[in-house]
Design goal:
Blueprint lengths: L2 H39 L11 E5 L12 H13 L8 E5 L4 H5 L11 H15 L4
Antiparallel strand pairs: 1-2
Helix pairs in contact: 1-2, 1-4
Length: 134
């Protein structure tokens, strides 16, 4: 390769890495928004459902908790670690309580349209508005 073509190749590589870094930041932003919005929309009796939103990377987790805030730090850490990962593994946002599906299907008067469906609709609007910035 000539010096000019090596420089061009290096510039393309640098642009590619910068672009992928921007995409990764956007994915982390969307994941963070998903967690915050699902938590905020969760119906609350004593807070168990609201406290059981869990983020995992690469594969779903099957954990539940009875402790207030137990998953908050873990979920934030999982999203923060995403920035250093290679590739783009799947980010899972889940609530593993046995009654989560009933709540999603309108069982609660506090969230008659569910939590996930409403959050996904909001995230789609956010994502479509970000198209020009990626």
């Amino acid at each position: 390769m000539t010096s000019a073509s090596q420089q061009f190749s290096s510039e393309i590589d640098a642009e590619w890495l910068a672009m992928m870094g921007g995409v990764r930041k956007t994915v982390v932003y969307i994941g963070t928004e998903a967690l915050a919005r699902a938590t905020k929309k969760s119906p609350v009796d004593v807070g168990t459902f609201q406290n059981n939103w869990l983020v995992s990377i690469g594969e779903p987790a099957d954990a539940t908790t009875t402790m207030f805030g137990a998953f908050a730090a873990q979920s934030a850490g999982a999203l923060a670690s995403y920035a250093a990962m290679t590739g783009f593994p799947v980010i899972y946002l889940q609530n593993n309580l046995p009654y989560a599906l009933r709540l999603e299907n309108g069982w609660s008067k506090q969230a008659p349209s569910g939590v996930v469906a409403m959050t996904v609709a909001e995230l789609e609007m956010i994502w479509s508005g970000m198209g020009d910035r990626l």
